[in-house]
Each structure stands twice: as structure tokens, then as C-alpha cells.
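Quick one, T. Sequence first:
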Amino acid sequence: MYKSTMCLYTFFLSKNQITELAMKVVSEVQEKGLNLDVFYYSSLIMGFIKQGDLQSAFQFFDEMQVRNIRPNIVTYNINGLRKMGDVKRARELFDEMKKEGVMV
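C-alpha cells:
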């Protein structure tokens, strides 16, 4: 229950571009010995993209893959990249999505 609630809180904070507080929530979750999952990572990535901080977004994207957490359709926020003008990276991620079988 705690993990689900904190994940929703992280999503809300990230969606509203309050990523500094979202990161504190994530740290608290990790301190309690709980592992981050695709939903936490996706929430953080979305928040950083909305803020225009692509470097942090890709840092978390890479980290989740190192931890063998498979991205989902939300994680691949291609529309956010397109809006930021990074069409090349959006295309690369779209191709990766197809390769990984992450399509709707």
C-alpha cells in the first residue's frame, strides 16, 4: 500500500513539474528498502521532460535499463521529445520500442 501511494504521489509531483520533491519521495522509498519500478521511473522521466531537462530524463531512462527494468509505453515519452524539438531522439526511441515489442 505504501509503495503504491508513494508512486502515485511521485506521479502527481512529476506531472506538475515538482521534480525536486518527487526525487525526495523516491529517496525515501529507497531508504525504506523498496525497489523502484517502471511506474516510478516513468513518472520521473515524464516530469523531467515536461521541465525540459532531457539530460536527467535520459539519465533515469538509462538507469532503469541498467537495473533490468523494462520500459513501457509511458516511459517512451516520444511526444514529449517531439515537442522539445528532439525529433531524432524521438525516432530512435520509437525504433527501440518496436524492437522491444512495446507498442499499443
